[in-house]
Amino acid sequence: TNQVIFKTRELNEAAGESVAFEQALKDNFTIEEISSQSISSTISNEMRKDAIIAIVIASILMLIYIAVRFSDVRFGASAVIALIHDVMVVFAIYAIARLSVGNTFIACMLTIVGYSINATIIIFDRIRENLKVTDRREGIENIVNTSIAQTFTRTIYTSLTTFVMVLVVFIMGVSCLKEFTFTLMAGIVCGAYSSVCITGPLWFYLKKIGKKSEVLEK
């Protein structure tokens, strides 16, 4: 079916603005069904607050799990910093595109966080494996570079296939899914970039800083 979304300022129901708007639509167009949703600034602020709380809780839990799983808190720290980067990019897209903070906002944010961390874990796991089998004299920098190169094709293929699927939903899906899929596509691109270009080098620099502090203490 053909669906059209009209976004307006908040209509005053007491003054009959919403009724008048619906009547104007019926008078000028052939409409089978009209549905309306009011998202006030209070509701938007609450949803934004809930999204931030959800992301913070998820990030802390992931930080703890990754630190324990990889026996190095720097893995978790670099992953969370990259996730913050992804979330801020999506926030910027919401602001630039002037998208309403609605029911899909929290779901979109958590989906992007969950998808981005998946590619990061793959790279970290390869770094950990290469640290075990590679001569340390080659340098950790080379080990990180090799690990990213070994997982690069997998990351691109996974991100590309997912992006294509979401793009098809964006083009052919119903209008209520377009905001979600649009921001999700941006999150997939940003997540692939941050996993490849940010997490590995960031872990390396945190490792380097940690070694310098250990030397200074000795």
Characterization of this structure:
This protein has helices spanning 17-28, 41-69, 73-96, 104-133, 140-172, 178-217. Helix 3 runs antiparallel to helix 4 (104-133). 77% of the residues lie in helices and 0% in strands. By secondary structure, it is mainly α.
Blueprint (SSEs and pairs):
Elements: H1 17-28, H2 41-69, H3 73-96, H4 104-133, H5 140-172, H6 178-217
Helix pairs in contact: 2-3, 2-4, 3-4, 3-6, 4-5, 4-6, 5-6
Keywords:
single chain; 218 residues; mainly alpha; 77% helix; disordered C terminus
Short description:
By secondary structure, the chain is mainly alpha-helical. Helix content is 77%, strand content 0%.
Poorly predicted segments: 214-218
Strand content: under 5%
Instruction: Supply Rg.
Output: 23 Å
Percent range for helical residues?
A: over 70%
Largest sheet: none
Question: How many H/I helices?
Answer: 6
